[in-house]
Amino acid sequence: MSGASVELASLTFSYGETRMEFDLKVPVSSVIAIMGPSGSGKSTLLNLIAGFETPQSGAVLIDGRDVSADRPAQRPISMVFQENNLFSHLNVEDNVGLGRSPSLRLTQKDRQDIADALAHTGLAGKEHRLPAELSGGERQRVALSRALVRDRPVLLLDEPFASLGPALRREMLSLVRQLHFDHDMTILMVTHHTDDAQLLADKIAFVDDGRIAAFEDTTTMFSPSAPDAFRAYIGS
Ligand SMILES: Nc1ncnc2c1ncn2[C@@H]1O[C@H](COP(=O)(O)OP(=O)(O)OP(=O)(O)O)[C@@H](O)[C@H]1O
């Protein structure tokens, strides 16, 4: 696996009176933290890239190809949400297998790849458990494993560790860092935590009032030269 560039070209979207317009160029294999006030449009931005929302105008380009007309499953993207990632009646192995085949018709190679992903995320031995028999952190590991076997060059993470305690969150961030090191995918991660961004991200996209108000290197954004609105948001 390797990454792909992601470009949003004058992408417009409205929820009633709430209007958004996004322009962004994400380099291949970079890790981007998407930060900004509550309600500014961060989740909507990821949903537009993934194809769960349809823009009014503009385009989403992945590696230069316009994917705007593609359904979510056709896009070279996988996404992990804060919660509700798993099917409660399916065991760990099958939940991960859905990343490879929606009908769970799995080849021997698929099963080997699933086993490898579960080993990679520290879940070996828990293949036959149901989601209810796992901790919150383990459930998010299953969701990450499914994203891994989907084997797509772009990974979208929408506050995937927000419900976890600080130690577990750090552990999961290290896992994401390791997965990026091993697979080199392009990652866009929504987070409100400055330490998450500083640990993982090459660049920060600051979303404010339905726009990308700043897109700079992480070191710049955490320096005195960062835009005032971002400094106010992080409380510095
Ligand atoms: N299904 C919906 N119907 C109508 N308005 C919505 C819907 N989902 C989101 N919105 C509105 O769109 C705006 C952007 O929402 P979004 O969830 O993208 O924000 P966010 O930056 O991810 O917020 P948070 O940090 O609180 O998760 C908000 O004003 C929100 O109220």
Detailed description of the structure:
With 236 residues, the protein is α/β, with parallel strands linked by helices. The chain folds into 2 domains: 1-76 and 154-236, P-loop containing nucleotide triphosphate hydrolases (Rossmann fold, 3-Layer(aba) Sandwich), CATH 3.40.50.300; 87-151. The protein has helices at 42-50, 92-97, 108-120, 136-150, 166-183, 194-200, 218-221, 228-234; strands at 6-15, 18-26, 31-35, 57-62, 65-66, 77-80, 154-158, 186-190, 203-208, 211-217. The strands form 2 sheets. It has a 6-stranded mixed beta sheet with strand order 6-7-8-3-9-10, with helices on both faces. It is globular and about 50 Å long. Bound molecules: adenosine-5'-triphosphate. Adenosine-5'-triphosphate is lined by residues 15, 18, 36, 38-44. Keywords: ATP-binding, Cell inner membrane, Cell membrane, Membrane, Nucleotide-binding, Translocase, Transport. It comes from Aquamicrobium zhengzhouense. One of its GO terms (molecular function) is ATP binding. Belongs to the ABC transporter superfamily.
